[in-house]
Design goal:
With about 325 residues, this protein is an alpha+beta fold. The chain is built from eight helices and eleven strands. The protein has a domain of about 190 residues: Gcn5-related N-acetyltransferase (GNAT) (Aminopeptidase), CATH 3.40.630.30. Acyltransferase required for the direct transfer of medium- to long-chain fatty acyl moieties from a carrier protein (MbtL) on to the epsilon-amino group of lysine residue in the mycobactin core.
C-alpha cells in the first residue's frame, strides 16, 4: 500500500456514511461537502429602489418610532457585539501534504467579519497523541510494539524492505537510502499528523507502519472524511512473515488499539491498491469493511474502514 508523507479540532465523528461522491462536484471536492462549500460561496445581493428606501428613511413623527435605517444599524451593532462576545467560530487549517507524490491542500472559508484564529499550527497532542506511549499490544501472534522510527537505527532495514520487488509494486519507494530517508524524515520533523513506526513482534523488527490523520491528509479529498479519521499503512517486511495470515491479525490489533487510544476517532481507514488482493483480504480479515473504490493520483484504491460502532461485530 502506498505511503503518505507528513508535511482541525473536532469532536467524535458520527458513524453514518455521508453518501457517494457527487458527479457534478468540481475536481477535488466531494459530494455533500462540495454542495455546502458552494452554498457558502454564493451571496444574495438585493437592492431596493431608491424611492422605497427614501420612504422608510424618514421618521414616522409623533409616535417616536425609529427609521428603517436606524433600526438596521442598531440590529447590526447588536449582532456584531454578540458575535464579538461569543468569539469567532472555530476553524481548522490544513497545510499542504503529499500523497503518492501528488500535492494537495484544503482551504477553509471564514467570514470577513470574524477575527482569524491566533494560530493555525495544530497542537501535536490533538493530532495522534504520543504513539510511542501506546505500549505493548497483545495479539494472537505474540506481543507487538509500535516503535517510532529512528533513522540512524532503522533506515537500513526499511530501505531493504522498500527495494523488495514485491513491495515496490505497491509502495513505489524503491531507490537509494537518501530517498527513503527523505520520506521518513518528512514525517518525523512534521507536526505529528503522521508517525512512521517499526513493528516489533516479540522484540524482532518485522513490519513498517504509518499511523496518520486521514482527515488532515490529501486522501480526504477523495472520500467523505470525518473529523479524527485515522489512517494506517502496513508493510510486512520479511518474506517469511508474508502469506500466513499475519497481516490481518496485526491490522485488527493495531486498528483496535488506535480506537482505544484515540477516543475522538470513530473510524480507522486504509486505501490499499485495488490490485493488491492479499492486502485487501488482510483488511477484510481484520474487521475492515470495503466502502468504495476511489481514484488516487497514482492508483485506484479500495477504501477500507474499521468502524468503532462495528468493532465487536466484524
Amino acid at each position: 500500500m502506498p505511503p503518505t508523507d507528513a508535511t482541525a479540532n473536532a469532536g467524535t465523528a458520527p458513524v453514518t456514511d455521508t453518501g457517494p461522491t457527487s458527479p457534478t462536484a468540481p475536481e477535488g471536492r466531494i459530494g455533500p461537502a462540495a454542495d455546502a462549500g458552494a452554498d457558502s460561496e454564493d451571496t444574495l445581493d438585493l437592492h431596493l429602489p431608491d424611492e422605497f428606501v427614501a420612504l422608510f428613511a424618514e421618521d414616522t413623527g409623533a409616535d417616536g418610532s425609529r427609521s428603517l435605517g436606524a433600526t438596521a444599524t442598531a440590529t447590526a451593532t447588536a449582532t456584531t457585539t454578540a458575535t464579538t462576545t461569543a468569539g469567532p467560530a472555530s476553524t481548522s487549517a490544513t497545510s499542504a501534504a503529499i500523497v503518492e507524490r501528488a500535492g494537495a491542500g484544503t482551504t477553509t472559508a471564514t467570514c470577513a467579519s470574524e477575527a482569524p484564529p491566533a494560530s493555525t499550527t495544530p497542537n501535536p497532542d490533538d493530532l495522534l497523541g504520543d504513539v510511542a506511549d501506546w505500549g505493548l499490544l497483545s495479539t494472537p501472534a505474540g506481543a507487538l510494539h509500535l516503535v517510532p522510527v529512528r533513522i540512524e537505527r532503522d533506515l537500513p532495514i526499511i530501505s531493504r524492505w522498500m527495494n523488495d520487488p514485491a513491495v515496490t509494486a505497491f509502495w513505489g519507494l524503491a531507490g537509494p537510502d537518501n530517498a527513503i530517508e527523505e520520506h521518513l524524515r518528512s514525517q518525523l520533523v512534521g507536526d505529528g499528523r503522521s508517525v512512521p513506526c517499526m513493528g516489533l513482534l516479540e522484540g524482532t523488527p518485522m513490519s513498517y507502519w504509518e499511523i496518520y490523520r486521514a482527515d488532515l491528509d490529501p486522501l480526504a479529498r477523495h472520500y467523505p472524511a470525518r473529523p479524527h479519521d485515522t489512517g494506517v499503512h502496513l508493510l510486512i517486511g520479511g518474506m517469511g512473515d508474508r502469506g500466513r495470515g499475519l497481516g490481518g491479525t496485526l491490522l485488527r490489533a493495531v486498528a483496535d488499539l488506535t480506537l482505544d487510544k484515540r477516543p475522538a476517532c470513530a473510524r480507522v481507514v486504509a486505501e490499499p491498491d485495488i490490485r493488491n488482493t492479499p492486502s485487501v483480504a488482510a483488511f477484510l480479515t481484520a474487521g475492515f469493511r470495503f466502502a468504495a473504490e476511489i481514484d488516487l493520483p497514482a492508483k485506484r484504491a479500495a477504501l477500507m474502514i474499521r468502524d468503532r460502532s462495528l468493532r465487536h461485530l466484524l
